[in-house]
Structure formats: C-alpha cells, structure tokens
User: Fold these one by one.
Assistant:
Number 1:
Amino acid sequence: MEVRSLGWQTDLMVRRLAGSSVEDRGDHIVVRTPHNPDYWWGNFFLMPAPPRAGDAETWLAQFAAEFPGAAHVAIGLDGVDGDVGHEPDLRAAGLVPELSVVLTTTTLPQPVRVDPAAEVRALTTDEDWEQETALRLLVRDVDEVAGERFIRRRIAETRELIDSGRGLWVGGFVDGRLVSSLGLVTDGSGLGRYQTVETHPEFRRRGLAGLGIRHAAELAMASYGVNRLVIIADVDYFALDLYRRLGFADAERQAQWERPAPSG
Ligand SMILES: CC(C)(COP(=O)(O)OP(=O)(O)OC[C@H]1O[C@@H](n2cnc3c(N)ncnc32)[C@H](O)[C@@H]1OP(=O)(O)O)[C@@H](O)C(=O)NCCC(=O)NCCS
C-alpha cells in the first residue's frame, strides 16, 4: 500500500526507527510495537481510505484478530484532506474521530520571543533523561503505576532512538531545571518529524517551545541532513497557532479513529 500522506509517512518512519514492525498487507498496514503494547498509536492499522458504510464491522473484526489482547482500537486513515469517512457504525462501536493538521517548512522556524533565562540544548545525560521523564509525568498529569510504566517505556524507546543517531531531543532549562522539551526524528531521507512538544505549565508562553523547535531545526539541518520539517497539531489546539507563527505552513489534514482502552 502506498502511503500518500506526509503525516503518516513520517509516523511510520518514526515507528520503524523505534523498532516497531510495519507490515504492508496490501490493502492496509499493521503497525505493532511489542515492547509497548499499551501504546495505542504504536499498535494500529493504517487504512488507505476513509471507511464507507459497512466497513466498520470488517475493520473491527480484523483489528481484534490482529491485536487479540488489546483493549484499545486505533485506526489511521491515509489521506490529505481529513476525511473521517462514514461515521455512524464506528461511533456506535465507541470510536471517536480525531483530526490533526500536518504542517511543514523548509526554512528555519523563527521564534516569536526569546526567554533570556533559558538555556536550550540537546539532552544527553542520564540526569537529563530522568528530568525528561519527570516533566512528561507532570505535563500529562500521570500519577498511577500503569501510566508511569507506559511513559517510562516510551522514553526508554526514545532514548534508544536518539542515542543511535536517529535524531535529537532538545530541552529548555531554567536554572538547570528542564522545563520544556521536544524531539526531532529523521531517517536520513531529508524529512525530519517533530515529536512530543511540551512545556511545564508554570513556564508557558515565555517562548520556550518556540526556542526548542528552532534549536532542533538548526541541529537537524546542520548535522542530520534534514531539509524538510514536519510537525503535527490537533486541529482545535492552540499549538497550531504557535507552529504557524514560527513559519510552518499547513500541508494536509490527518484523520484517525480511536477507542481508548478503559482506564483503571
Ligand atoms: C503547546 C505548548 C508546548 C506551548 O509551549 P510554550 O512554551 O508555552 O510555547 P511558546 O511560549 O513558545 O509559544 C507561545 C505561543 O503559543 C500559542 N499559545 C500557547 N499557549 C496558548 C494558550 N493558552 N492560548 C492561546 N495560545 C497559546 C500562542 O501563539 C503563544 O504566543 P503568545 O503567548 O504570544 O500568544 C504547551 O502549551 C504545552 O506543553 N501543552 C501541552 C502539551 C501539548 O499538547 N503539546 C502540543 C503537542 S502538538
């Protein structure tokens, strides 16, 4: 199956580099992340087109057969216009559609403001990565064991990816404390995909995310052969304004269906 969307192409690029299996079944793609089975978007289907009436039953049966132990359902739709397809049957099965905007630029992002108190640099040490874990747990408001295990697995995967030269992770530090971070992953093809842009709630709107995005772009363009940057934001979240102000342009809309696993 040929993947048309830059959003999904770069999602699959990141998954492959992170050690997930990406199996092309001809009429759909199965992505599997055995080292983190609770990661919905590491264990998902990518379909070539939005669902038509009658597709839901087949899709859900295929998903259940492929991921028999999974409590979640995650189905991406290749396409560029955000069409979520025929909704009633998937909604009746408890799934909800999600829309994102895929933005790109080939020039260096321009930060909207610069926080003079911040030091922006790549994460390298064990302590940096411990701080990254603490920041992620705080931003995501995770306080239960399963949630923390999930975050630690995600970060262990990320660190392996970065340590093996597939990209970089950048932090904004104030007084030595990590308060903002994000990643950029590339397979050497020239495409660089941003990951997990996050700022500590008490340090927001000081320009830290913008600075990190700029710094990661500089490093990626200078040392990783990246010439096209890709970033994705929820269609109704203000991160979209930030990315547009930095100079990213809307390229396509990405659609997906998801049924979260019950929590608890
Ligand atoms: C999105 C996020 C990373 C921004 O981090 P930040 O360090 O505050 O971002 P910056 O200071 O560089 O950019 C600020 C700009 O972003 C936009 N923005 C940030 N917070 C906003 C808010 N609450 N309401 C409206 N616009 C907002 C504005 O354009 C703002 O500029 P302004 O302050 O001049 O209006 C941060 O809010 C966050 O961590 N959110 C939770 C995690 C998340 O969802 N990340 C996005 C994944 S796509």
Number 2:
Amino acid sequence: MTVEAELGVLAGVEDEVQAEESHYTKPEEVIDFATRTGCDSLAISIGTSHGAYKFKPEQCTRDPKTGKLIPPPLAFDVLHAIEEKLPGFPIVLHGSSSVPQDEVDTINAHGGKLPDAVGIPEEQLREASKSAVCKINIDSDSRLAMTAAIRKYFDEHPEHFDPRQYLKPARENMQKMYAVRDRSR
Ligand SMILES: [Zn+2]
C-alpha cells in the first residue's frame, strides 16, 4: 500500500471536506510533514482547486473574444521551492482538471447549466509535469465528459431509457478525453 498525503488547503469539495479558500503549501513545512507521516507521495496546493468551478469570476480575467474566464496562473515558485526541499520526492496535483470548454458547451447546449465553469489551462499542467509532479488528478474532467455525452444522448434519443445504451457513448467520450491527454504530454 502507498499513502498519498495532502498538505496545504485546496478550495472546493473533496470527500465531503469543503474549503472556501485555498492556502498554498508552505515549503518550509514539507520536510517535517513528509518525514513524520512517512507518506509516499505529497499532494500540494499551488492554486489548483477541487471541482468544476475552480475560480470565482473575480479571481479571473475574461477573454474579450469568447467571454470565457481565464484563471490566475499556478504558483510555480511554490512548486519549485518544494522540489528543492524534497529532491526526487513524488509530488501530486489534486483538483487539476482543465474543464474542457467543448464538454461544458455540450452540457449547456443540452439542458445543463454550468456557466463560467473553469479549470487549469493545459499548458500549465504540461509545464508542471516537467517538474517533480508525477500525477495530475483530473476527476472533474471525467465527470464532465460523461455528463456531456449522456445529456447529448438523452436529447437525441428521448425514447431510450436503458443505461446500456447511454453509458456506451458516455464511456467512449471519457476514453477519448483520456487518450487526448495522454498524447498531449
Ligand atoms: Zn485533494
């Protein structure tokens, strides 16, 4: 068994634990924490957030062309300070879904209501993956991919009610999303 521990506070909800605000992981605490807990990997807080609404509109700027929110950048200085404290130690990012806007648009086009859902830009995740970050959690992206496919399916096949029918495109859409991520590393 391996243990992954989280130090610092991510905004959002995870396993029934909710936080309004995020607090970056303090680099000066990570050696003591990793040593005393004996954890195998460390999830840190550098501005990622659990859920599909990672940032409030007032934390973001808005793309004048598309009207979509542009989130604040991740705290790479904190990440690099942690890397220096724990050379070679596996770092994990929770709450790092990119919240693909095509999936959000599909959901909204088929009866959903996710205005201003926003995630971590993929180029920042790609940048983070070049560091000690060895795992990036993207659960919300799977949920969005699945929900988008099911909403679209229900809209197009209102007569269907068998999960074996609508879970098929839902799974396929999730697989497609993971395959794209894997290729874009
Ligand atoms: Zn977490």
